[in-house]
Amino acid sequence: MESGSEAEPGEFPWMVHLLIQQNGDDEWFSCSGTLISDSHVLTAAQCVHKENRLNSISSITLGAHGIRADSNSMQIVDWKIITIPAGLGHYMVNDIAVITLTKPAYFTDHVQPICLPPARFYMNESVVLTGWGQYNDSTTNLILYKSETVLSSFGTEDQCQKETGIGPFSDESIICTHASICHRHVGSGTPMNHYNKELDRWFVLGLAGKVDASTDCQSNKPILFTRVTSQLDFILKHSDVTPPYVNDTTVKTTSVKTTEATTTTTTSKPPTFSCAGKLDGYHPDASSSCSKTFYMCSHGHDYTFTCGEGLAYRTDIRVCDWPSNVAGCNPKNFIIINKN
C-alpha cells in the first residue's frame, strides 16, 4: 500500500508514541517506539539524542490509536533510563535506543509487546511498517498508519547506498526497503513488523532511521532501517529481553529458526540433498531452477526451509524473492499476492 492506510484500534498493540522536545530549542516532534516488554521500549537513537545531549521526552503513550483522542486504552508512562550505543557519530550505524520505563506497563488488548527476532531471523516475506501520520492533513491529530511491502531483491548493500546517497554501511546492520513505501507515514523509530504464521507471532525486524517527512508518497527513495538482529546483544544487555526459540542445542528436525523470508518446516528433505562437503550456509534446491525450497548447512547438519507464499529462492543473493526476479522462474507457477 503505497500511501498507507489507517490501522485498526489495537491492531498493533506494541506501538508507542513519543513526543520529544529537541534540546536547545522549542522544536517538538514525534517518534515511534516499540514495546518489547512491560518495561522496555525500542526507538531510534536520533529521536532521543542529538549532539551529545539527550532530547527531552515530553510523553510516552501506549495503547493509542489517535494521539489527540481521549481513550480508555491509552496509558501515559514515564521513563527512567535511556541507553544508546557509544560512538553514535554516524546515524546509519547503531541507530537504536532502549528506553526503560519507571514502572511496568499494564498489558491489555491494546498494550502488548512484540517479539525480538531470533539471531538467524531475516526478512524477505511481507512486512508491515507502522507509524504515526497526520489525519486529514491535521498537524495536531496523529493516528496510526500501516504500510505493507515485500523486501525483495531491492536493498542490496551497493544498490541501496547508491539510491539513498548515504553510506557506507553493511547489509548486516541496515535493511533497505522497497522504494514504494510512503515516507509521510514512516517516521524515525517506525518498526518494521513481520508476522510469522508458523509461530503465530509478530517480530520487529527493523527500526526506521532518519526519514525525510517532506518527501511525498511518489518518492523513489528507499528508507533505511536498523536491523534489529544486529543489535540483539545490546538489547539483551540493557533490557534482559531475548528472542523466543533461539536455543541452538534444540535445533534438530523441529527447528523454528527463520531465515530470509522463511520459516523452517518439519517436512522431510528430498534424499538428493546432503551437506557432505558443503560449507556452512544456505544452499539452493539443485533439482529445480525455480523452487520455494532451500537448505541450510550447519556443522554438517542440514535443515529445510520454505519461502513464503508466492516467493521463490533466489540463488545469486540467497534470499526469497518474487519469481519474476528469479532466473529460470515462470511466475505463472506461483500465486502472486498483490498489495492492496
How would you portray this structure in words?
The protein is mainly β and 340 residues long. The protein has 3 domains: 10-101, Thrombin, subunit H, CATH 2.40.10; 126-231, Trypsin-like serine proteases (Thrombin, subunit H); 248-333, Antimicrobial Protein, Tachycitin, Chain A. The protein is 6% helix and 33% strand. It contains 3 helices and 23 strands. The protein has helices spanning 45-48, 157-164, 232-239; strands at residues 5-6, 15-21, 28-35, 40-43, 49-50, 53-54, 56-62, 75-77, 79-83, 97-101, 126-134, 142-150, 174-176, 191-196, 201-208, 224-227, 258-259, 262-264, 281-284, 293-298, 301-307, 312-314, 319-321. Strands 1-12-11-14-15-16-13 form a 7-stranded antiparallel beta sheet, with no helix packed on it. Strands 8-7-2-3-4-10-9 form a 7-stranded antiparallel beta sheet. Strand 17 and strand 18 (262-264) form a beta hairpin. The longest helix has 8 residues, at 157-164. The radius of gyration is 20 Å and the shape is elongated. The N and C termini lie close together (6 Å). Residues 246-271 and 331-340 have low confidence and may be disordered. It comes from Daphnia magna. Residues 272-331 form the Chitin-binding type-2 domain.
What is the topology?
Elements: E1 5-6, E2 15-21, E3 28-35, E4 40-43, H1 45-48, E5 49-50, E6 53-54, E7 56-62, E8 75-77, E9 79-83, E10 97-101, E11 126-134, E12 142-150, H2 157-164, E13 174-176, E14 191-196, E15 201-208, E16 224-227, H3 232-239, E17 258-259, E18 262-264, E19 281-284, E20 293-298, E21 301-307, E22 312-314, E23 319-321
Antiparallel strand pairs: 1-12, 2-3, 2-7, 3-4, 4-10, 5-6, 7-8, 9-10, 11-12, 11-14, 13-16, 14-15, 15-16, 17-18, 18-21, 19-20, 20-21, 22-23
